[in-house]
Design brief:
Blueprint lengths: L23 H6 L18 H18 L77 H7 L4 H15 L4 H14 L1 H13 L5
Helix pairs in contact: 4-6, 5-6
């Protein structure tokens, strides 16, 4: 995962939640968020987890909602795409009507602009050997969570601990103790704050 310390987040837009869903199925169950939905100018990093999710999220949505999932109102872009994509199960947008479904044509159908639809990172060299490896729980796996935690303000650290404790306190004690070990390995202060928050939430650990 890319370190936020080395590569700080840059605000590129804002998602505003200005109302609650009116129909849970239509607006929540059918929502199809996927990291592969990117606007031009933003490209994925070679992070291995992200690369897997670029495929798997969208593929799961296609299986769950059908090939025309982007025609569902909750997933439909504000400005519709003008393409030759047609047919398929659950096509609900008029399917292009009587417009020609080929190019070139002389009847006002979509035509290409020859502009790249996406940009890709350049000069990213990836190499290695695919093999089976025994899983090892090493301290290096906890370094990045610890670095991220220490980028938070004191208030943010307390809120993270309180949010974790509100749910973790509802689990059996052996699970709480097991999870605390992970927080302590990421950062001692992280583990301590979560432990204090757990006890404040009524845990008997």
């Amino acid at each position: 995962t890319v370190s936020q310390k080395d590569f700080p987040l840059q605000e590129v837009g804002r998602m505003v939640l200005n109302r609650n869903p009116e129909n849970y199925f239509a607006e929540v169950e059918q929502a199809a968020f996927a990291p592969s939905n990117m606007v031009p100018g933003i490209a994925p990093s070679p992070d291995r987890m992200l690369q897997a999710r670029l495929f798997s999220y969208a593929d799961a949505h296609r299986y769950r909602l059908g090939a025309n999932l982007h025609q569902i109102p909750i997933n439909r872009p504000i400005n519709g795409a003008n393409t030759h994509h047609r047919d398929g199960f659950m096509a609900v947008n008029g399917n292009g009507g009587a417009a020609p479904n080929y190019w070139p044509n002389s009847f006002g159908g979509p035509h290409p602009t020859n502009k790249p639809a996406q940009v890709y990172p350049k000069n990213v060299r990836v190499e290695g050997t695919a093999a089976r490896h025994a899983f090892a729980d090493v301290d290096a796996d906890y370094e990045q969570p610890g670095i991220l935690y220490n980028m938070f303000s004191d208030d943010e650290k307390n809120r993270v601990a309180a949010n974790i404790a509100s749910s973790l306190s509802q689990t059996p004690e052996f699970i709480q103790r097991r999870q605390l070990k992970h927080f302590y390995r990421a950062d001692k202060d992280y583990g301590h704050r979560v432990e204090v928050a757990l006890k404040a939430a009524g845990s008997k650990i």
